[in-house]
Structures
1.
Amino acid sequence: MTSLQAPAPEVAAVPVRTARTRRRRLPRSAAWLFAGPTAVLFILFFAYPLGASLYQSFTARRDGVTVWVGLDQYRRMLDDPAFLHSLVNTAMILAVQVPVMIGLALVLAVLLNQSWLRFRAGWRAVFFLPAVTTLVAYAVVFQVLLRTDGGLANQLLHALGAGPVDWLNSPTWARISLIGSVTWRWTGYNAVILLAGLHAIGRDQYEAAALDGAGTLRTYTSVILPQLRPVVLFCVITSTIGTLQLFDENYVLTRGGPGDATLTPVVYLYKVGFQQLDFGYAAAIAWVVVLVIAAVSLLQFRLYGRERRR
Amino acid sequence: MSPTSAPTPAAARTRPRTRPLPARLGRGAVLLALALGAVVSLVPFVWMLIASTHSSSELFHSPPPFLPGGDLLRNLAHLQQSIGFGRVLLNSLGIAVVYTALSSVLSAMCGYGLAKYRFRGRGLLLGLVLATMMIPLQVLLVPLFQMMASVGWIDSYQAVILPFLANSFGILLMRQGFLDFPDELLESARIDGSGELRTFYQVVLPCVRPQLGALVIFTFMGQWNSFIWPLLMLNTEDKYTVPVALNTLTGLTHVDYSGLMLGSLLATLPLVLLFLLFQRQFVAGLLGGALKG
């Protein structure tokens, strides 16, 4: 706060505006000085392309010209097996990966929250590290680790006496690999957020529970974790949105394959848009993704709001 | 740890001997579980380190190499020769630095505007900021691509940097920081005749250094890792960023795995160092979204 005093003496010599300063009211005109540049960028590079893609989703290229086709592109999705597969894949990842990851993160956070634990910052750093890996690097490393012929994972299995697994080329294993690698990357990240949530709960609560005769486990299940619910919900919301938008991981790891086994809607729309150059259909898929995300977020924000009022 | 929970020195000295067996077992189990998790977390990094010092064929031998080998320089030379990695690293660094500088200033200013002024369109702007967080980037790709093509910016750095300068995460993070800044102090700066911009840079900004640190780190990291947009925009090899260059290497018929691992290591190292140096700001940034939200 010392910096507050610094500029005062010199500017006090120019008392032009002092007399007519409005009380407790901030001038409006200056607001656009601060928010204006960003607002322009948002309109140019967000609002406009968003509108353009909505328009595109009602059009198609026929014989080299763009024509209005109404809801045709949206109807196409209903009997497009690739798109339906991508939805099923996403639902499967949501149902398996998000609960497993949040559960693991919760356990990790509780373990890290033990008051006797030393080097907590060091442990935290180790678990957070996967989240700061460059995406492509991470996919490359997993490709090498999971290579069927001589990859580290299969060598480990071999040493344990199990046969080689075709990690990235069999539909089921490819899904498992994808879920595993996403979980590897984001568990520590969520654990760090949850740990901070645990820290925000006062130490006195642990002591009070201990005084009442509750053991460590009981203290967590009945006193601490219920209070952590808003933070858990936050993690669930961001992870769900992240899964609905899943692109990077499966694009680099498997390109959505084998077949459509790890195809997600966003990878599919990327392929439709930039490989088949079917812009109208890509835009329609994109808007379905947007609507799904909006619906899910709205639902979860409602829950979140209710939690916060409790 | 709060001081109230810390035992007195005398108690601490006698305690370990009197601690019952179940408690000791419990602690052992916790440490074991943490160690196991740490191994899972670190193996890919260790493997990246080891693999980048061996030749490609050695990586898939049985048993795999467990110690660093002597091929690091050879792999580096090979990487430089195949994708000009030095140039690629510089490209990534330059783009990330310029982007971070511009985007951080814009985010801080916009966050301040939203936190401290009531103006027409404020709700709309805030809505726009929130909407960008929910809408997947891929929705915008085609129209943005067409925009860039129509102004002839394909394969230029400005096309990589400009469209994502307005960063909603950064804006919300900074807005949160500014909300706590007392209005009375702004008012007194105004009475002293300080202009709005000057007040912002000299009075307000120094008070939100923690958030600013988090903002800079997250922005840099985001741009350094950014993949799809540079992939679409850049199409000459000497303009590639690290992720784009690595991606082209994975697509070759004969994949140079050692080179890839070394490239991945060099792509990851700056972020890991940044994270280890600024762990506190990192966590503060995460929480800016999570706990105050």
2.
Amino acid sequence: MSILKQLEEESVYIIREVAGQFDNPCLLFSGGKDSITLLHLAQKAFAPATIPFPLVHIDTGHNFPETIALRDKLVAEHGLRLIVGSVQDDIDAGNVVEEKGRHASRNSLQTTTLLNTIEKYKFDACMGGARRDEEKARAKERVFSVRDDFGQWNEKLQRPELFDMLNGMIHNGENVRVFPISNWTELDVWHYIRDEKLEIPSIYYAHEREVFKRDNQWMPVSEYVNVADKDERQQTSVRFRTVGDMSCTAAVLSEATELDTIIEEIGGSNFSERGARMDDKRSEGAMEERKKVGYF
Amino acid sequence: MELIKIATAGSVDDGKSTLIGRLLYETGALKTDQIQHIEEKSAARGFGYLDLSLATDGLLTEREQGITIDVSHIFFSTPKRRFIIADSPGHVEYTRNMVTGTSNAQASIILLDARKGVIEQTKRHFFITQLLGIKQIIFAVNKMDLVDYDQTVFEDIKATLTGLVDKHGKDGVAYHYTPVSALYNENIVSRSKKLAWHDGEPLLSLIESLPVDQNQAYDGAFQIQYVIRPKREELHDYRGFAGNVRSGTFSVGDAITIRPSGRKSIIKRIEKYGAAVEKVNAGENATILLVDEIDASRGDSILNAQANVNQSKNISATFCWMQDTPMSTGNKYWLQQGVQRSLVKVQNIRSKMDLEALAQSEAKELTLNDIGKGSLALAQTLTTKAYKENPALGSFILIDPQTFNTAGVGFIETA
């Protein structure tokens, strides 16, 4: 069996465990390549039936429009149920306060909206497309990661996971974050997208865009980013390697308009995937700090 | 390309994180930004070399203490093979992590400090690999630089290790012994001039060529995870038992028995993700459709004629205890075997392992990190087999009914 097939088997097994063990699970869907892969795996897991849980999108309001368009298309095509948790609504309600300054981003505000959405719909399990190769703190993440009443992750309370046995027993009010593609690498996801002919948002492919350079990263010019006058702007061919909030996702210079050339570029890249995520660079342990307070 | 999962463990200071960091660095798994980060941090700490252990020590708390505290999954690959390293900490109190990391591995690297030789941790880790039936074990004697690459130091340690293996080792297991210096990259990716006296492959070549072990048991055993019933007119009668082949193979036309109900039928159709297939093998997922309309639900087993298994309500097992509250006679737990659960009651605890002496001693209870033997009474019948004959049917976890934490793991001896 090829590595991709092995990974697919493992992921489908995990997704079926979620449907089997929990009363009210959901799939956290950002519209990025990882969550598109996860959705595809979930559809395989329950074929010929439709997936027995809704998609949940935590919308920062600063998404790439291309991502939202594809999200809505997939929902319509496959008859899926979509629940949107809006960061803007939480800002309007005064639950969170918008960050200020040059590096302002709504990325960390997502946590509150995510936790509110989990509480509102009483989800007991939330599947996400995080992978262990993304970041050091992720490498220690369990497949079933138990969160307390406050959505907090505590590394000392993580359950040992033996063989392929997943223990999803929880108390009322607790919930579990589930990571079915834990063992996939970034390149595995790209190869899978190519093999399975999955549609991904167009911004993953090279396109012309106005960008500006900040801290050696190419940031997209948009109404959500505070571009200073001294920032050097230019129109050039770029693609995105991850699709996060527009205010914190950097582009890479690229001419790659085909999956084959993207895979070639990523395979030969000297920079890690999250190297293009400004939110991780804020401090050593940035990801771990966010996970402790319930970040996905 | 092939995937191999390798468990590593070692004591606090024997350089495990450095070894893994070295493997990542040499195989190109570390990217420029990550290396830059390590360079900056190493310089800030005043080191004259790259502190490669920074590549893996993931959690803030352990970076503060300079130690590893949990199982970490690390990826790298060579043109020949993909590796997933399950790195577990080596402190005495974290045996549970060692068992956890090793449970999914096909090989184990037991790291020793050349200056210290065989210590209690080495024995503990060795015993765990034997208990879990790991077929490929590498004893890597690290920090050879600190003993001037002295052959007699290595040979003395090796003699102690082979003594251990002769006494407690298992048939069919390959044991490898290799001297290395992870810090100075000696005998890791290429043969070392300083260790020219060592006749053997460097560590990386060794792990590239280890055979990958599969579950060889013939028993055709399938566990139902989820019953697929599409709510659509054209699929009104569709009832697919989605699950995982625990061992053996299943083909269309196989006569099967469902357990615990004992009902019999024949496989009408096997699907993988909606598409029909003729046959599925151990480890694969499948959706099985039967000729007859039979009721079966999550956790039930589908067995074919090749399944030579037991239907048990009492089991005797070796346990590794993983929580603070002890395991003692009369305690109740949830047992989970694969995806099936049953309430169980501890009938007795007979003995526990002294991991220093590697000998059994009498015991009444098992406390955190103890490994010992005992018996359970089950509330419902389970399909079982001894762990050494069929790991998929012979292993289970115990879940604390109050906290729902995974309290321990068991390996069935006689069912």
